[in-house]
Design goal:
35% helix, 150 residues, 6 helices, alpha/beta, 6 strands, single chain, Rossmann fold, globular
């Protein structure tokens, strides 16, 4: 569910346009690196794009968490930032399981890969999932957040 954050006018080429900035209800960060989680959480908070941010340090912990909230659409994430390289279950293993959640099936949740992998094969594999809407190479930056908001 998106919440209207602000409405403002700006001028481009002497024409006024109405810009609506939308704020997500919930973002889930999945990464085994605590420093990356700290930085990503900070960037998301600084840009004020989500009411709630949940951080999980493994794909398995994230799936366990999502299982407990799968029927609560008000709490289920609107967006997931997902790392690829994690122990026990990588980001691709997560995606295989995640596509079966009801909110995901109804296309009310998206995934952005946020990874250190610049490998074109990883990018192609990730983008083959309908729920994956983008692929960012770490670190998360303000420009990436602005791209999400468009």
């Amino acid at each position: 569910m998106l919440v209207l954050k602000s409405v403002w006018k700006f001028q481009i080429n002497n024409h006024f346009k109405l810009a609506i900035m939308m704020k997500m209800n919930h973002i889930l960060l999945i990464d085994d690196n605590e420093i990356d989680n700290y930085i990503n959480n900070h960037i998301i908070r600084e840009n004020d794009i989500a009411e709630m941010i949940t951080v999980k340090n493994s794909a398995i912990a994230a799936l366990d968490y999502l299982e407990t909230i799968k029927d609560d659409y008000a709490v289920f994430p609107d967006l997931v930032f997902l790392d690829i390289s994690m122990p026990k279950m990588d980001g691709f293993g997560f995606l295989v399981e995640f596509v079966n959640f009801p909110k995901v099936i109804e296309k009310k949740c998206s995934v952005i890969m946020l990874t250190s992998s610049n490998n074109p094969e990883d990018r192609e594999k990730a983008m083959n999932y309908d729920i994956v809407v983008d692929y960012f190479v770490k670190p998360l930056q303000d420009e990436m957040i602005r791209k999400i908001q468009k």
